[in-house]
């Protein structure tokens, strides 16, 4: 995520104007186009302490997701980017959410769309990456199944179990 998106999120966290679904969609589209221009694969990644991380197996793919939510209209936007083990862009998508209950619901919709596309593309092993810690917890346990968004969490977990050899969040 670029510094412009971080600044927008920080401004939103202090109560300033949130991005509209169209603005999020446009930003995702811009970044997808930018990723498409990249020719060099990312050969290795480094953690914070400079140690090399072990590369993922060849049939493991990373799906990054994000979403936006505007409480005043209950609308939002979702997006995902799928990459291979070398960080090469493979697919991406974005869309609008016409009715959302919460930001967590919007994040769950982004996860569902990204996972559905990964399954369509035949990706057997997935690493689903989100910046929403609550979503990560909801998709890896049943702790939040009684929440208003609990139904979609159950649907996503069932989808992950039936469509992938492994799916780590």
TrEMBL record:
Entries under InterPro entries matching the protein: RNase_H-like_dom_plant, RNase_H-like_EbsB-rel, RNaseH-like_sf, RNaseH_domain, RNaseH_sf
Annotated GO MF terms: nucleic acid binding; RNA-DNA hybrid ribonuclease activity
Entry-linked CDD domains: RNase_H_like
Chain ranges passing through the membrane: none
Record domain RNase H type-1: where: 64-168
Family annotation (PANTHER family): BNAC02G40300D PROTEIN, REVERSE TRANSCRIPTASE-LIKE PROTEIN
Protein name: RNase H type-1 domain-containing protein
Protein source organism: Eragrostis curvula (weeping love grass)
Lineage of the species this protein comes from: Eukaryota, Viridiplantae, Streptophyta, Embryophyta, Tracheophyta
């Amino acid at each position: 995520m670029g510094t412009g998106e971080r600044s927008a999120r920080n401004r939103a966290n202090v109560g300033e104007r949130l991005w509209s679904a169209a603005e999020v969609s446009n930003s995702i589209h811009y970044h997808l186009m930018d990723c498409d221009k990249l020719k060099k694969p990312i050969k290795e990644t480094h953690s914070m302490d400079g140690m090399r991380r072990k590369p993922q197996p060849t049939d493991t793919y990373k799906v990054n997701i994000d979403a936006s939510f505007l409480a005043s209209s209950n609308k939002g936007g979702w997006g995902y980017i799928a990459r291979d083990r070398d960080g090469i862009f493979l697919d991406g998508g974005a869309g609008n959410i016409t009715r959302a209950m919460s930001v967590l619901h919007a994040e769950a919709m982004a996860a569902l769309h990204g996972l559905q596309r990964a399954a369509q593309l035949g990706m057997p092993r997935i690493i689903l990456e989100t910046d929403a810690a609550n979503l990560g917890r909801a998709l890896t346990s049943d702790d939040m199944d009684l929440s208003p968004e609990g139904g979609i969490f159950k649907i996503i977990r069932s989808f992950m179990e039936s469509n992938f050899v492994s799916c780590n969040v």
